[in-house]
Amino acid sequence: MQGQTKAFTQLAAKELRKTMTDAERKLWHRLRGQQLDVKFRRQHPFENAVLDFVCLERRLVIEVDGSQHLDNEQDEKRTAQLHQAGFTVLRFWNNEVLNETDEVVQAIWNALNPSPPQPSP
After folding, report:
1. Choosing a second label site near 25 at 20 to 30 A (CA), which of 14, 63, 80, 117?
2. To which H or E segment does residue 44 belong?
3. 103: part of which helix (H) or strand (E)?
4. pLDDT tens digit sequence for 14-66
5. Please, which residues bridge with residue 41 across strands?
6. How far, rounded to the nearest angstrom, does the alpha carbon of residue 69 sit from its chain's CA centroid?
7. What stretches of 56-119 adopt beta strand conformation (E)?
8. CA nearest 110: which of 58, 65, 66?
9. Other CB atoms within 10 Å distance of the CB of residue 99
10. Overall pTM > 0.70
């Protein structure tokens, strides 16, 4: 992914790593150290944005959003841009991460390990 980011975005990512929200911090505690058998990066610069969490190996992006993201057109554009670049995007609200952490981690696990299609009866 080198060469795909702007210097400003790289500086913003570095600062965001220092000022993670409580929800981001809680989820990072569950994602770091290959606890889900893959490596995640936090606050990773990509083009003109900073991704909350990304598994580059599996092309999975996880965004943790607060109320400022309600009906956010910019988020929709970024999601479309990420899909075009071959990423799957999962979005969770802060309160989901804080109050339903196990369910959020299970959803991430399921995205990383999709079930094979079942044959028709």
Report:
1. 80
2. strand 41-46
3. helix 101-112
4. 555 666 889 999 999 999 999 999 999 998 888 878 899 999 999 999 999 88
5. 54
6. 14
7. 60-65, 88-93
8. 58
9. 11
10. yes
Identify the residue whose tokens are 């969770």.
Answer: 92
Query: Domain residue spans in the chain?
Result: 7-112
| d(C-alpha 13, C-alpha 19), whole Å | 10
When the pLDDT of each residue in the chain is averaged and rounded to a whole number, the result is 84
Q: Which fold has domain 7-112?
A: Endonuclease; Chain A (3.40.960)
Residue 15 corresponds to which amino acid? Answer: E
Structure tokens at 76: 């929709």
Provide the residue type at 6 as one letter: K
Structure tokens at 16: 């965001």
The pair of three-digit structure tokens given for residue 106, joined into one six-digit string: 């299970």
End-to-end CA distance of the chain: 44
